[in-house]
């Protein structure tokens, strides 16, 4: 865990840019483009945010965070932070890394989903690798990072799309690329779904499409079942409208959770026995089919009993 000091700058579109650094100027742990850190905003409020700065810069981390009135409290808490405050953060973790084998990288960021793409563009440009970046927003006035992209050293590789000017044409964008292109998309669910569907019609392979979700519509409801935490010697009943995390917490076993939406993977746990009912957006279809891991914040059991390695 790191304790870092905040420099805060308000951007347009209800976005705040946080620059986090050691008060004494020490170098921070390195990371690769696509990585995120967890902000510990209170004892029970931990949220993951993508790093949007240049990965080569070890002096600070940067996060761009949208003020979302529909959030579960994370973004609202971030926007109350003040200049000079200290915050605890995790070391960077990367679940959305660039593929070294890609001949070309197509970066698509919608709204605040542009944040990991900024780090990706910086890393690709520094390495002299081929890429294009598409930034889609409702309007230019609400595009928090438009000025940064227009003045970037790779600005000629950036294309801007605004709903009230010229909308993003996914068929054209996904067609006008060289062979062995890998696609990276982050943003609203409808954008990511559209990218996936369009890519399928254009014969992209599943391994060429990479995405990172900021939110997900998770339904935890289902039949009650029993969970045995083998290593802890605890058995709990998970009620119809209760998550495994909540049931375990009532029994005194606290699970590390962050997003609580099956996105970040912080509560990923091995399954020793039983069949998971996956409700997450983190595991791949192949990993879900294996049935040996589960996201405890949202997934359930298909049967009456699940034994986990916890």
Strand content: 25-35%
Task: Indicate the overall shape.
Answer: globular
Q: What's the domain count? A: 3
What would CATH call the class of the largest domain?
Answer: Alpha Beta
Q: Give the H and E element order.
A: EEEEEHEEEHEHEHEHEEEHEEHEEE
With helices defined by DSSP (H or I, 4 residues minimum), what is the helix count? 7
User: Which regions contain 5 or more consecutive residues with pLDDT less than 50?
Assistant: none
Q: How would you concisely characterize the structure shown here?
A:
By secondary structure, the chain is of the alpha/beta class. It has seven helices and 19 strands.
Written overview of the protein:
Keywords: 2Fe-2S, Flavoprotein, FMN, Iron, Iron-sulfur, Metal-binding, Oxidoreductase. Residues 225-310 form the 2Fe-2S ferredoxin-type domain. This is Ferredoxin-NADPH reductase. This protein is of the alpha/beta class. The protein folds into three domains: 2-94, Translation factors (Elongation Factor Tu (Ef-tu), domain 3); 104-212, Nucleotide-binding domain of ferredoxin-NADP reductase (FNR) module (Rossmann fold); 225-308, Roll (Ubiquitin-like (UB roll)), CATH 3.10.20. Helix content is 18%, strand content 32%. The protein is built from seven helices and 19 strands. The protein has helices at residues 74-79, 115-127, 146-150, 170-175, 189-201, 244-250, 285-290; strands at residues 2-11, 15-21, 35-42, 45-50, 61-66, 86-89, 93-94, 104-110, 131-137, 158-162, 181-186, 209-212, 225-229, 234-238, 268-273, 276-277, 293-295, 300-301, 305-308. The strands form four sheets. Strands 1, 2, 3, 4, 5, 6 and 7 form a seven-stranded antiparallel beta sheet that branches. A five-stranded parallel beta sheet has the order 10-9-8-11-12, sandwiched between helices. A five-stranded mixed beta sheet has the order 14-13-19-15-17. Strand 8, helix 2 and strand 9 (131-137) form a beta-alpha-beta unit. The radius of gyration is 20 Å and the shape is globular. The relative contact order is 0.12.
């Amino acid at each position: 865990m790191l304790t870092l000091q905040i420099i805060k700058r308000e951007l347009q579109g209800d976005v705040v840019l946080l620059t986090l650094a050691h008060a004494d100027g020490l170098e921070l742990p390195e990371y690769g483009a696509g990585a995120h850190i967890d902000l510990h905003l209170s004892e029970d409020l931990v949220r993951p945010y993508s790093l949007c700065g240049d990965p080569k810069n070890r002096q600070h981390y940067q996060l761009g965070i949208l003020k979302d009135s529909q959030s579960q409290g994370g973004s609202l808490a971030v926007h109350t932070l003040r200049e000079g405050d200290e915050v605890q953060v995790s070391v960077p973790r990367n679940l959305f890394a660039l593929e070294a084998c890609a001949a070309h990288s197509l970066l698509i960021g919608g709204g605040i989903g542009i944040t990991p793409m900024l780090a990706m563009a910086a890393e690709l440009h520094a390495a002299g690798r081929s890429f294009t970046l598409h930034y889609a927003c409702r309007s230019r006035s609400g595009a928090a990072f438009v000025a940064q992209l227009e003045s970037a050293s790779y600005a000629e590789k950036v294309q801007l799309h605004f709903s009230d000017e010229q909308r993003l044409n996914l068929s054209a964008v996904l067609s006008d690329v060289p062979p062995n292109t890998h696609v990276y998309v982050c943003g609203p669910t409808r954008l990511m779904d559209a990218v996936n569907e369009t890519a399928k019609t254009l014969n992209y392979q599943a391994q060429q499409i990479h995405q990172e979700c900021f939110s997900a519509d998770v339904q935890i409801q289902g039949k009650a079942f029993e969970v045995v935490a083998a290593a802890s010697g605890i058995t709990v009943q998970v009620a119809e409208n209760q998550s495994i995390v909540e049931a375990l917490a009532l029994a005194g076993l606290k699970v590390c959770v962050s997003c609580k939406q099956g996105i970040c993977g912080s509560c990923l746990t091995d399954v020793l026995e039983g069949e998971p009912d996956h409700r997450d957006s983190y595991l791949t279809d192949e990993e879900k089919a294996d049935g040996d891991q589960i996201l405890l914040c949202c997934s359930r059991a298909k049967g009456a009993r699940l034994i986990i390695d916890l």
